[in-house]
Design goal:
The complex is a heterodimer of chains A (502) and B (397).
Chain A (H helix, E strand, L loop, with lengths): L2 E10 L2 E11 L4 E5 L6 H8 L7 E6 L2 E3 L4 H6 L2 E4 L11 H6 L5 E2 L4 E2 L1 H14 L15 H14 L4 E5 L7 H16 L3 E6 L2 H7 L2 E6 L2 E6 L6 H9 L17 E11 L5 E11 L3 E5 L6 H8 L7 E6 L2 E2 L5 H6 L2 E4 L3 H5 L6 H5 L10 E2 L2 E2 L1 H14 L16 H12 L6 E5 L7 H16 L3 E5 L3 H7 L2 E6 L2 E7 L5 H8 L5
Parallel strand pairs in A: 3-10, 3-11, 6-9, 9-10, 15-22, 15-23, 18-21, 21-22
Antiparallel strand pairs in A: 1-2, 1-4, 4-5, 7-8, 11-12, 13-14, 13-16, 16-17, 19-20, 23-24
Helix pairs in contact in A: 14-15
Chain B lengths: L2 H30 L1 H6 L4 H24 L2 H10 L2 H33 L7 H19 L6 H30 L3 H22 L36 H18 L1 H11 L1 H6 L4 H28 L10 H11 L4 H25 L4 H15 L1 H8 L4 H8 L1
Helix pairs in contact in B: 1-3, 1-15, 3-5, 3-14, 4-5, 5-9, 5-10, 5-12, 5-13, 5-14, 6-7, 6-8, 6-12, 6-13, 7-8, 7-12, 9-10, 9-14, 10-12, 13-14, 13-15
The chains are: A alpha/beta (502), B mainly alpha (397).
Amino acid sequence: MRLELQQITKQFPGVLANDRISISVDKGQVLGLLGENGAGKTTLMNILSGLYRPDSGKILIDGKERIFRDPAQAIDAGIGMVHQHFMLVPVFDVTESVVLGNEPTKGPLGSFDRATARAQVAELSKKHGLHVDPDAKIESLPVGVRQRVEILKALYRKSDILVLDEPSAVLTPQETEELFDIIRGLAKGGTSVIFITHKLNEVIAVADKITVLRRGAVAGETTPAKATASILAEMMVGREVQLTVSRSKSHVAEAVLEVKGLNVLNDAGALAVNDASFEVRSGEILAVAGVQGNGQTELVEALTGLRLIDSGSVILEKKPLPAGSPREIATAGVAHIPEDRNRDGMVKGMTVAENYILNTYHLPPYSKRGVLDRKAIAAATEKAVKDFDVRTPSIHTDIASLSGGNQQKVIVAREFSRNVRLVIAAQPTRGLDVGSIEYIHKRIVEQRDAGAAVLIVSTELDEVLALGDRVAVMYEGRIVGILDAKDATRERVGLLMGGITK
Amino acid sequence: MSTLKQFWLKVRVPALSISVALLIGALFLVFTDIEVLGMLLSDPLGALALGFGRAASSYSALFRGAFGDPANFGKALASGDVQLWARALRPIVESVVASVPLIFVGLGVSIAFRTGIFNIGGAGQFTMGAVGGAIAALVFGAGVVPAPIAILLVMIFGLLGGALWAFLPGLLKARVGASEVITTIMLNFIASQLVFFLVSNVEFIQKPPRIQPVSKELSQFVDLPGILPIASLRLDIGIIVALLTAVAVSWFLFRSTRGFELRAAGLNIAAAKYAGMGASTSIITAMLISGAISGLGGALVAVGTVKQLSPGIAGSVGFTAIAIALVGGTRPSGVVATALVFGLLQHGGSLMQVETSIPIEMLLFIQALVIAFIAAPELTLGILKNPFRRRQAKVTK
């Protein structure tokens, strides 16, 4: 089927999310839809899947105009969505998950025909080379396979157009390669694929045609043959971008953080960090790679006082870490850029200035005898906003109304405003535009050059390889390897991320 | 943006909510009038005229009950007689009197809400403050200590009573995670039953000859000074203390270090923990202050306005105050303004009940509508939208 979106416009209060966007994908073609967060990709796909109605513009399938009033109509028209966050029931098996909502039935009571369902799923999986066991329980499957179950779900509903929203966010590089093979296979079989991503290399690898969105409008169209990563980045951002972090050789000195035999439990009481040992030295960046959910979150929480340590020792600057006390840890010279900035890093509903003093509000000059000194707070924030190039109408603006990049700059400015000996940055650039990523990377490297020890945790392999002087890889709670930057190739780190240590 | 526009952006939702609620209340009055319904088929126009006429006279009574009768003001102006002035001013003064407990409890629960704690024990804390105030009056009043000191002690005991009643749920929530919604509701019942016990079993408190479950006349022990030149109008220093409390709460929330912690914890508890703020401390502090303010109100109302302690002293203050806190956006200025509006509605409603036999529950209906509209700001603002505007914009594009 050929899908065409013509002049789609969607206005939200205060934002023109889609401004006369036109895209098209032919039968058996893979369209790479590239854009930063906030470029309008998600809105466009929500329109395509029937969640939103466009203010104006048309959706054409094989040249005929279609109007989707709800997601069911979009599915009927052959559009299948694979969301970034999987919608699967953990205790179901693959067959049940795939047919859920469209179960084959038998008998007068319309009871569930499991045998037919199983056969259908097995056949579909074989036909498209997905290699999914129809009897496996979802909870026992690795993330990459769960994603294929989602794809099966769409195919089972006879989708001719498959939309994949940031599909590689949760995959290891090897799993991503497998996904690309599946996508190529589907396209060969006549399925049209829309592949949404912000990763430049991926569209070049898999797409037949690339459409770049910027600020709600189409910034350009090209093909992988004509495009390079830097051309695409420029289209995406609207200016020339430096894709690699320039940094000099580091001057490595004494260990600032020494972790030995660290065990940390997750909320369910299971071992999330298992016997982790490593050190981070002054003047170096240790980057921790790993697929999301392999204990990195718990590791960072334990090191920053948000989670208790089960056993093991953590030495910060020759003294035991004041575990469980974020305030004491911060006072001891640790800057923490949290993984989830919306949840931990800032208080929406408070101003930029209030967020800037969020963990120093109780100290002079901001607080004197229990009273906030507004002048001192304003002066310090004004300076930080200028130094860190935070784009905000005023320091008294609610931080919630800033863009993600500017919010993160406020957080980074706040954390770097203290005397910093150790930087712990978890996913410091997640969801940010290329310009902000560039800026925040530069600031982190500056801290390293000034002699701080830096621990970066990231699931983006590009980020890990770009920043790490050494690269540690976490898999199922363990540190499965620590490599020097010169040995840390994409392949080696990728294999370690999948738990393959040989 | 001009100051006027900023002000409008702040008040447009509450203002619209109140107006629309009154409008719906009027329709409700029209279409529940049995005579109107009876005539509706045979003489629809006449029925509507009758219905809206009656609704208009109800609201007229509501208005006169709330603000006073313009005719009385005319007479008072013409003669200058103190008695006539008292009569003209009494409705508006009584409306303000009715809003005093609402201001206190509204401010009290607002502090808790700001911290993310749903303290719905305003009634219990108010009641326990009344107990504290009454006991202080009975012990220290009637010349035991000089009058100003007795008044001060009444206020302090009120603060302590309310703080104690809020401290318990705060401690339970901070230590064992007990839901404050449940514990504060339960403590509301306990408070009023405790008052019942005190005023029917304790000779020191109960009014002789000990038949009714009410306390001795508190004004015989401590009398709060009035603030109006006409002695028969009962507006005492309670309203002054209420307004000062609002200023103090505002200062505390927005200028003090502790207030900063409470607001951060209320908006995002995870970020507050990340920033090293102690969640338990915030919860207990907020509850102590919240209860103390409600308790202060209880003491001043028991000693000054009601002049007696009785089990039902809190009335519906607890519920109404929650509404006021939400309508006022948990901002002290908003709470004061809303409490005044609700005070006007309450006192106006009592005249409406007398004149038109429309029960005062009608006002609860209108209050509930106000809350519903406030809770759905998008819906309420939708009323303002011009339905043609959107289409025009499309054409011009």
